[in-house]
Write a structure and sequence with these properties.
Helix content: 55-70%
Organism: Crotalus adamanteus
Largest sheet: none
Order of helices and strands: HHHHHHHHHHHHHHHHHHHHHHH
Domain F-box: 69-108
Structural class: mainly alpha
Number of helices: 23
Pfam families: ARM_FBXO47, F-box
Biased composition (Low complexity): 30-39
Radius of gyration: 32 Å
InterPro entries: ARM_FBXO47 (IPR056622), F-box-like_dom_sf (IPR036047), F-box_dom (IPR001810), FBXO47 (IPR038946)
Shape: elongated
Length: 456
């Protein structure tokens, strides 16, 4: 099939509507109205009435407080918490919306030892658990995120984050360096679904405050600075932790592409374009299936398959297709150009396969930019490998032909166009000669053998 860009349908995050019912439930009683025929009391009786009225108002205030507890007003706190122990997390989160007093009691229950044990299961390392068990743990923390969203509704964002951090900081697997086996741990994924549910519907300004709060807690920017300023692969464990934290906590689990694009923008935008490309490769690039470490040599040593490039291409399309105001088309094209030389210049077949996966709307501007910048020879070799990848990966060859024709139209001077076409011919001839020479010499090269078969 012809590679094509998928249009994304973006809709704003869902905003949870929370109704404050306590105001409707609390009815402040007023003193009875006197009729016009009532005689005016003397001074002594008036003082007595004022004293009685003051006492009555105090009783009414206490009654108003108790009324927001409904049928639980006569129960001791210990019995109330025992009842909460029989309710599901979803039921408790609904109950916390009844009134502020109920919400306060729920918050107190969360902080108790029994509530803490119940709400925060930490069976993150049971490697023998089934997929359904793992999913149930994730769903539990998703429900827990909704509970915290509702019971802290009346607090300012800063106070909400402090309270939530105080509770979650007790879980070691939620910390950046808290788990010794983060690759096989569900902890950060549970943290991610909790955070996603908590912040769903928040505006961008509040979500940015959440990101900066997490950066302060984890020293994430400082850790990234250490990695991007060093040779790739020097700090492999730190690279793996950054990758795991960013994917599991910040980027995965989102329903809408615009949300994922927002958090990815938070991660990348503070950095120069070179570091943006480095971080993008670190987070989405190919990794070892054995230990999870980032494979920096995968793109250099020889051709790789689509699976190694798909996540990286999807991330680039995410930034381009969401049309976020922070990213222009030129920004994304520059990012792709920088990616193709990390950590060194990629094998041209990998570059061609990556551009095909990125789609037409990224592939053509990328190639056109090379045309207008006088890089005709480099562009010609890329066109040749686009044709080879289309043949190897069973894409329609007509797509490669039309792409070359569109690129030809970019050249405004006929002489430049002729140089470009001649360079394509020379590139085809060169790759055929290289393949024949290796075959004739008897040297084993599956890549060139296959390439020669494809061309012929």
């Amino acid at each position: 099939m012809k590679p094509s860009k998928q249009k994304l349908k973006i809709r704003p995050p869902d905003t949870e509507t929370v109704m404050d019912t306590s105001a409707n439930q609390e009815k402040i009683m007023t003193s009875p109205t006197r009729s016009s025929s009532t005689s005016i009391p003397n001074q002594k009786h008036q003082c007595s009435y004022q004293h009685s009225s003051k006492f009555s108002n105090t009783m009414q205030t206490d009654f108003a407080y108790l009324s927001t507890l409904g049928d639980f007003k006569s129960l001791p706190l210990e019995i109330f918490e025992m009842i909460l122990g029989y309710l599901s997390v979803a039921d408790i989160s609904m109950m916390s919306m009844v009134s502020k007093n109920i919400s306060d009691r729920v918050v107190n229950y969360i902080s108790t030892p029994s509530g803490n044990r119940r709400f925060f299961p930490q069976d993150f390392h049971n490697h023998e658990q089934s997929d359904s068990t793992g999913s149930s743990i994730l769903e539990h923390y998703r429900s827990l995120g909704l509970l915290f969203k509702r019971c802290t509704l009346l607090l300012p964002t800063k106070e909400r984050l402090k309270y939530i951090y105080k509770i979650l900081s007790e879980i070691s697997c939620f910390k950046f360096n808290g788990c010794s086996d983060s690759l096989h741990c569900l902890g950060l994924q549970c943290y991610g679904v909790f955070l996603q549910t908590l912040t769903a519907g928040w505006d961008e300004f509040e979500c940015q405050r959440v990101y900066h709060f997490l950066c302060d807690l984890t020293s994430l920017p400082q850790r990234m600075q250490r990695v991007v300023s060093s040779k790739p692969g020097i700090f492999r464990k730190l690279e793996l932790r950054i990758r795991t934290f960013c994917c599991s906590v910040l980027l995965n689990h989102w329903t809408h592409q615009s949300d994922s694009a927002f958090w990815l923008t938070c991660i990348l935008k503070p950095w120069p374009i070179v570091n943006q490309a480095r971080l993008l490769y670190l987070i989405f690039g190919p990794a070892s299936t054995q230990d999870g470490y980032v494979d920096w040599q995968n793109m250099i040593q020889g051709p790789t398959d689509e699976n190694s490039l798909k996540e990286l291409a999807d991330a680039v399309k995410l930034l381009y297709d969401t049309e976020a105001k922070e990213w222009t088309a030129d920004d994304v094209i520059s990012l792709v150009d920088e990616l193709a030389v990390i950590p060194q210049e990629w094998h041209l077949e990998n570059s061609a396969r990556f551009l095909i996966l990125c789609g037409n709307n990224i592939c053509f501007p990328f190639m056109a930019s090379k045309a207008v910048n006088g890089r005709a020879v480099e562009l010609a070799r890329l066109v040749v490998f686009l044709a080879l990848v289309c043949e190897k990966d069973l894409y329609c060859m007509d797509w490669a032909v039309k792409m070359m024709q569109k690129v030809c139209n970019v050249f405004s001077i006929s002489s430049e166009k002729n140089v470009f076409l001649q360079s394509i011919e020379n590139a085809f001839a060169q790759i055929i000669m290289d393949a024949l020479q290796l075959v004739i010499s008897g040297k084993k090269s599956n890549y060139y053998n296959r390439t020669l078969i494809v061309i012929l």
